[in-house]
Amino acid sequence: QQPVQSPQAVILREGEDAVINCSSSKALYSVHWYRQKHGEAPVFLMILLKGGEQKGHEKISASFNEKKQQSSLYLTASQLSYSGTYFCGTEWFRDDMRFGAGTRLTVKP
Amino acid sequence: NAGVTQTPKFQVLKTGQSMTLQCAQDMNHEYMSWYRQDPGMGLRLIHYSVGAGITDQGEVPNGYNVSRSTTEDFPLRLLSAAPSQTSVYFCASSYHGQPNYGYTFGSGTRLTVV
What we know:
heterodimer, A: about 110 residues, mainly beta, 11 strands, about 55% strand, B: about 110 residues, seven-stranded mixed sheet, about 50% strand
């Protein structure tokens, strides 16, 4: 089963913050986050392993709540370059990763 | 440049034709997989492999075959193309059994079946 992402789309002005959520009905081994620009391949942002950790990557960070089987991606002080579609990928066991339907993020000047 | 190489970038097939999508990586990754991407549905796993000689099915394997004879290559075969297989196909690779590594994706193959 694919994880559920929300919201489906979000529009921001430069400098604003956003949160993208990813939830699963199954216990998770790991959560991945990727960003895909139009017409390009998805690019890896970060991975979170079960254990409730939080990671950061520039102004983009994520958390993983193992009990709730949820992960959230936080984008702070958004830049135009953050525009794209964000996907979470979840593994119930290693190697079988399923992706959410994606969240389209648009950052406007 | 190190990475995942997919060929062709674009392909048009007639219904019933067969073809092979090529995927090669030069990062010595044990894990390789194929996904298809359709509008509004994200990426769906077709087949994956954790090493030469080992393959397994994902969530949408019907109509596709794979084999893994070398670490570097993981071709995807469409046996008898159908319009429902019109999609963008991505190959991905990663280290196997090592946490903290994400997937590296190829640039994709856009397939149209008419």
